[in-house]
Amino acid sequence: MTFNSDILIHPGLGNSGEQHWQSIWEKRFNFIRVEQQDWETPVCADWVKTLNEYVNRHDPANVILVCHSLACATIAYWAAEHNISIKGALLVAPSDTEADSYPSGTSGFAPVPLTKLPFRSITVISDNDFYVSPERARLFATSWGSEIVNIGDAGHINVSAGYGEWDAGLELLKKLDAGY
């Protein structure tokens, strides 16, 4: 499998470990990981600034962002601030930073922006994600103008939920890469 786009991997809170599908994809396809300064107590403005720097190292029209969890809200804030049209974004397991159950330590990520993204996106959600209810995940995706892909009882779509290689996710990324 080959990709024609510049693929930027953006993990969420805590970064993605070696067995996480994002890390596996990064190594397998030589994708570029967005390296944030602080993975444990992130500040939204800092994450947005770093993401913007990474995107601008490439032709934005050829960039696809692959985001997990808190990175999905980061993309929404980034898009609202910079309004740069990229090729697309794969937004996986968006977390609800406004929920009482959301881990403490993040700053500036609430409320989750509910504005349409200026680029094509696919949001992958689960029916039993402990970081977001299915209703809120659908609200985020619909507000962002995303195609919604519900993969059922998939937890937070991470290693603890059994998502390592995640070939079905690669097929969604390939769809974005092909431009449809």
TrEMBL record:
Pfam families: Ser_hydrolase. This is Alpha/beta hydrolase. One of its GO terms (molecular function) is hydrolase activity. SUPFAM superfamilies: alpha/beta-Hydrolases (SSF53474). Transmembrane segments: none annotated. InterPro entries: AB_hydrolase_fold, RBBP9/YdeN. It comes from Mucilaginibacter gossypiicola. Signal peptide: none annotated.
